[in-house]
């Protein structure tokens, strides 16, 4: 007789333990063990939360190299069926070898569940019969559990489900996240102590009243924004380091529909616009996607959303200041080009219309579409096409955590018929849907890869551009990690080409994420290891750093409503000299609209206490030494970047933290 020592690790998370009876069967190359009841000295506490318990499984002779284990649990006669979250199982063979079976899945029924040994295997090297069968069965089941759905024609497809509780258990929020995160504006309102205001459909009477509503929850940056929101330099700064660093681009030729002349702008000294464009000192933000969108009707009032053009100048002292703003796309007498030399309120009103346009562009395109919806596509394609034993699954699944549920909640509570955006944003309703469809055509592969994106927008040399500085470093660190891991598994391009699971993953992304639009530049298949490495780098960067850059600062920059109005309820001035503080207050959203907007950006900026930060892999999915070492190197590089960002921020008037690895989460989780 020979003994196999089986050690079972139960996960250390809320309600992970079970009092049910657990059985195991070992499957090897030369035979199988009996199904054995794991009865240990600890009795029913053997599978308690965080428990590590060892058992002996005896076989008449050795069963060879272990391929997989079969696990099931049955209710005890006293204890009813309960859910169990085994983390992993280790088996020491009589030959002295240790086999690792990563699980990290909830077992919620009495069925038999199969788990393969942890060494990563691609489809063409999974050559034993039981191994092949379990691989095929797993993909078959996943194809049933994870199905594509069309929420809205013309935008990336999503996961089919009736609601968050209908999602497979393994991708739902943890108990901790669930109780902390009630994704409704009412919760946010209560936390901000604004419940009394959420039904007031009045205008703001004065600036002091707006000051008061921000007083219950403030951040250092929201205080700074409140103090500096009117300043030109801060207005310009936000295009680089605010929540939407994605629109600004270098301007070398003025757009035909933006006829700014030298007489209108003051560039200091004798410089002309042409000179300054030549030198690379002129920048443009063009909100053309918003042109002609149908706007909302809130509290019985028509709302206004402009599609502005903004020209900015990099001054000799390295500030980026706006020099001209045209609020509508078509030049006309009733569409004046506003300049800093106009009256205080004309210029300020023009900037407020730009900031409100930016809110709508940022939330629906830059944030929702370009990070949340794409992250869901990457996740669903992975879960449908790639089995747990595949190296790509092990590499990417930590970057999908909570994404399916958060997006489900966003569809239900933000953009549905009764969603907060639908009811309170300027573009809410039909405009919002049109904007998302228009946005997809601007999502090119190059624009998702920060080194290409910065080059394409001509932003390599803009001073004080921390999104770019930190983002490029983060990209490089992720790239180096991904390259290490994938080149360990894929020794040459042929191996990439013949990996049918990998090819199905990218094809599903091309078809369901980018709707088979070849013009996006998204690959339909992978030919080389280098292509694969770049794409996987983009996936991890999008789900982690990019999402953080456009998500984490939402309350910092949007809590003070005048800096980021969710909507505006008066049309912009058609001639100069007609504005005042009174017209500005009447243009701002009503009290209830304002506080709904504040509540949402508050909730969307709040990390859960069980968040997992970039590079932390609490689930040890890789069994081989090399990828484990690469994870350690990755964590070291991220730590060094974090330290460097902290040191850099000491001297900054407004610290830029959104790409600091200790702020960035592994996945799109809020
Ligand atoms: Fe988000």
Biggest sheet architecture: 5 strands, antiparallel
Helix fraction? 25-40%
Tell me the span between the first and last alpha carbons. 53 Å
Q: In percent terms, what proportion of residues is strand? A: 5-15%
Low-pLDDT segments, ≥5 res? none
Class by helix and strand content? alpha+beta
The averaged pLDDT comes out at: 94
Number of distinct beta strands: 18
3D shape: elongated
State the CATH topology of the domain at 2-118.
Answer: Lipoxygenase-1
Summed up, the helix count is 22
Mind telling me the CATH class of the domain at 2-118?
Mainly Beta
> Judging by the overall fold, what is the CATH architecture of the domain at 2-118?
Sandwich
């Amino acid at each position: 007789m020979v003994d196999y020592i089986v050690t079972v690790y139960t996960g250390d998370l809320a309600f992970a333990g079970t009092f049910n009876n657990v059985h195991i069967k070992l499957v090897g190359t030369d035979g199988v063990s009996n199904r054995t009841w794991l009865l240990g000295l600890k009795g029913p506490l053997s599978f308690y939360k965080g428990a590590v318990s060892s058992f002996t499984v005896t076989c008449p002779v050795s069963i060879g190299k272990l391929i997989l284990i079969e696990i099931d649990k049955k209710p005890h006669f006293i204890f009813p069926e309960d859910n169990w979250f085994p983390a992993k199982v280790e088996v020491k063979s009589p030959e002295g070898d240790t086999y690792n079976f990563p699980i990290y899945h909830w077992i919620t029924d009495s069925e038999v569940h199969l788990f393969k040994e942890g060494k990563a295997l691609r489809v063409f090297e999974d050559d034993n019969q039981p191994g092949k069968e379990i691989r095929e069965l797993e993909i078959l089941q996943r194809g049933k559990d994870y199905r594509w759905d069309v929420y809205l024609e013309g935008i990336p497809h999503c996961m089919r489900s009736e609601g968050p509780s209908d999602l497979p258990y393994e991708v739902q929020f943890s108990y901790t996240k669930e109780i902390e995160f009630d994704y409704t504006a009412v919760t946010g309102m209560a936390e901000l102590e604004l419940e009394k205001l959420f039904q007031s459909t009045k205008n703001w009477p004065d600036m002091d009243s707006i000051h008061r509503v921000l007083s219950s929850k403030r951040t250092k940056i929201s205080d700074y924004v409140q103090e500096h929101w009117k300043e030109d330099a801060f207005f310009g700064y936000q295009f680089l380091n605010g929540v939407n660093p994605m629109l600004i681009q270098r301007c070398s030729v003025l757009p035909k529909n933006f006829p700014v002349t030298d007489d209108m702008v003051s560039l200091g000294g004798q410089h002309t616009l042409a000179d300054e464009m030549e030198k690379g000192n002129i920048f443009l933000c063009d909100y053309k996607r918003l042109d002609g969108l149908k706007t909302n009707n809130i509290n019985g009032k028509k709302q206004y959303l402009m599609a502005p053009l903004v020209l900015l100048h990099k001054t000799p002292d390295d500030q980026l200041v706006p020099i001209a703003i045209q609020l509508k796309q078509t030049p006309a007498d009733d569409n004046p080009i506003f300049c800093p030399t106009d009256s205080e309120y004309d210029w300020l009103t023009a900037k407020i219309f730009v900031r409100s346009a930016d809110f709508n562009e940022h939330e629906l395109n830059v944030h929702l579409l370009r990070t949340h919806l794409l992250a869901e596509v990457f996740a669903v394609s992975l879960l449908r096409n790639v089995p747990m034993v595949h190296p790509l699954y092990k590499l990417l699944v930590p970057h999908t955590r909570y994404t399916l549920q958060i997006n489900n909640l966003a569809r239900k509570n933000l953009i549905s018929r009764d969603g907060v955006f639908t009811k309170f944003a300027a573009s809410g309703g039909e405009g919002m849907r049109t904007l998302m469809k228009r946005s997809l055509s601007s999502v090119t592969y190059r624009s998702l890869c920060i080194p290409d994106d910065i080059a394409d927008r001509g932003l390599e040399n803009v001073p004080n551009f921390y999104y770019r500085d930190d983002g490029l470093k983060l990209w490089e660190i992720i790239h180096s990690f991904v390259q290490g891991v994938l080149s360990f598994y894929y020794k040459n391009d042929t191996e990439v080409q013949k990996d049918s699971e990998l090819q199905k993953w990218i094809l599903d992304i091309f078809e369901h994420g980018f709707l088979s639009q070849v013009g996006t530049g998204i690959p339909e298949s992978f030919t080389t290891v280098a292509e694969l490495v770049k794409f996987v780098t983009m996936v991890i960067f999008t789900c982690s750093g990019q999402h953080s850059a456009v998500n984490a600062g939402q309350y910092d920059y949007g809590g003070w409503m005048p800096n980021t109005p969710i909507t505006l309820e008066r049309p912009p001035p058609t001639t100069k000299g007609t504005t005042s503080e009174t017209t500005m207050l009447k243009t701002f959203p009503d009290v209830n609209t304002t506080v709904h907007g504040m509540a949402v950006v508050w909730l969307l900026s709040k990390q859960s206490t069980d968040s997992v930060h970039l590079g932390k892999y609490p689930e040890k999915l890789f069994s081989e030494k090399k990828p484990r070492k690469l994870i350690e190197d990755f964590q070291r590089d991220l730590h060094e970047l974090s330290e460097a960002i902290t040191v850099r921020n000491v001297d900054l008037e407004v610290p830029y933290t959104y790409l600091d690895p200790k702020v960035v989460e592994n996945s799109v989780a809020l």
